[in-house]
Amino acid sequence: MTDKKIEVCLAGFGNFGKKLFSYLEKMPEFLVRYIYHPNQEKSAQYGPLGTSDIHCILNDPNLEAVIIATPHDQHVGLLEPLLLLGRHHVFVEKPMTAVCEEALALEQVFLAYRKRKVFMVGHNQRREAVFRKAKELLDKKAIGSVVDVSFNFSHGGVYNIDPGNWRCDKKRTREGPLITLGSHAIDTIHYLFGPVRSVCATIRNVSGRTTAPDCSATLMSLDNNVAVSLHVNYNVPSEKRCVISGTEGVIYIDRDRIFLRLGRDTDKMPTRKEKLTVISVDTVREELQEFSDAILKGKKVETGFAEGAAVMKVLEACYDSSLTHTPRRLSL
């Protein structure tokens, strides 16, 4: 292992930013040089690492990477100067931007940037052991041809969230949980099954506790004719379920457990589900390790600009579908 440390700036020090910081401190590949917040008073709360001076960060010749964990509506304000300058490797937490238009605007800048630096988007749900196992089974055609998928990724956070939290503000998160939680699920859908062709979505507020939506339901048609039903909510007891139905069997995912049922019914009796053994993975550490390996060893990242932009295109289509009450087809 090389003794070289990657000097990084961590932008954003909320819940997930603090989690990332705890990993960066322990990983020998990284050295945190700055914790950035645009507000000087708030950055001062971060101690000697805190700074609100973005020009100091951008022009520090020793700084190699920036890790962005701010609310997603602040991502583009950091991504644009970083990509234009082209001096720093970038890891940005999902979703890559707040709206698809921002991602598309960055695309041309990225084409030049990618030749010099590493760009990674933190879509880490696909790394979970149950989804890696599902991918292995699907690649083997263990359940035959996939027919349909039901995905629910939800919790009841709207009932205990601070009303001042940015997630409550429709102007800052117009898709509600679909963009915060659902961006994980959409990337996982791409990983397991391939591109989304069309969507029909409803995004709404049921609780009345926020101006932002608190629930969504989306029917997706994929390029391979698989149908996916995705439910993402902030107003129900927590769920993390995925049922993948194929012509020869069914895969059931319930949080960190995965089950497999093979064969059709016999005398109207279903075959038994078998619980599969998987080894838990620390997905945050894995993605940060991959980021460092890409910088130090030239390895390729699994979720880069293309994967991040693909999720944003689906989210845009879902938002348009909900506004117009009509299905939306994604452009190629």
TrEMBL record:
Pfam family, one: GFO_IDH_MocA_C3
InterPro entries, A to Z: Gfo/Idh/MocA-like_OxRdtase_N, Gfo/Idh/MocA_Oxidoreductases, GFO_IDH_MocA-like_dom, NAD(P)-bd_dom_sf
Domain Gfo/Idh/MocA-like oxidoreductase N-terminal: residue ranges: 7-123
Domain GFO/IDH/MocA-like oxidoreductase span(s) in chain numbering: 131-251
Database matches in Gene3D superfamilies: Dihydrodipicolinate Reductase, domain 2, NAD(P)-binding Rossmann-like Domain
Molecular function in Gene Ontology: nucleotide binding
Annotated SUPFAM superfamilies: Glyceraldehyde-3-phosphate dehydrogenase-like, C-terminal domain, NAD(P)-binding Rossmann-fold domains
Protein name as it appears in the record: Oxidoreductase
